[in-house]
Amino acid sequence: MTDVLTHLTALYAQTDDPWNFDHSPYEQGKFAATRAALTRPHYPTALEVGCGNGALAQHLAPLCDAYVGMDAIDRAVVAARNRVPGATFVTGVYPCALPITRPDLVVLSEVLYFLTPDTIARLAGDLVAQAPGAEVVCVTYLGDTAQALQGHAALDLFRTAAAPALRLREVAATALYRIDRGTVGGDPA
């Protein structure tokens, strides 16, 4: 994880938007597709692990009474707080205590492949234990992640570790990403 943190810190040292979230048609389309993949018009609480600079939160937080994002990079968290002042953003490197328990929505957008297989399994277990009934949305990048894990492999590890309590099914896909959704303790939504 140290190499990943060093890589992410270096990316954010140059800019608050290292992936060009604000101007990339790919990112903007993915954000819109993620919002469209949600099954409810409103969620009391939401948790986004790996929230980055809050670009996705900007699209999803208006649907929630309380939106909490967590990211490993301080500069990203500061940028997220500035972007979505009504939400809560905290710095945390998973594995750690999740900043909220029993969220109604969990968002894992292009974050799983930054984790190790053991950490992915632990996150799946924590979510199954702490988020019964939560809708879980996983957005997976399908290109080269430049990490030890590729998107499909990371998603497969998460799916296996969360089963049978969480069964995800693909609800949207392009050549570059896919979105999977399920409910903890329920049938795939």
TrEMBL record:
Recorded source organism is Loktanella fryxellensis
User: Which superkingdom, per the lineage?
Assistant: Bacteria
* UniProt-recorded name of the protein: Nodulation protein S (NodS)
Task: State the Gene3D superfamilies in the record.
Answer: Vaccinia Virus protein VP39
Q: Which CDD domains match?
A: AdoMet_MTases
Q: Which residues form the signal peptide?
A: none
Q: Where are the transmembrane segments?
A: none
Q: Which GO molecular function annotations are given, in alphabetical order?
A: S-adenosylmethionine-dependent methyltransferase activity
GO BP annotation list: oligosaccharide biosynthetic process
